[in-house]
Amino acid sequence: MKIKHQNSLILATISALNSTVLGKGIKATHNIKLKRGVYDSQLEFSRKDTETINPIDFFMLGYYIERDYDK
What is the pTM of this model? Predict the structure, then answer.
């Protein structure tokens, strides 16, 4: 799964991955690659095991980012 957006939102996503329980869980179960750009960047998520990505985890992470991090 890929998230490509302006740098401020990518930084908010990284902050949420580092500081929320859900984010830490995603970091524990996924490989995460950051491709930096001048105006926008991209995060790529892939599972460390053979399970499928759970979309509700990323929906809830987005909710927390909007509520608490994207100011």
Answer: 0.88
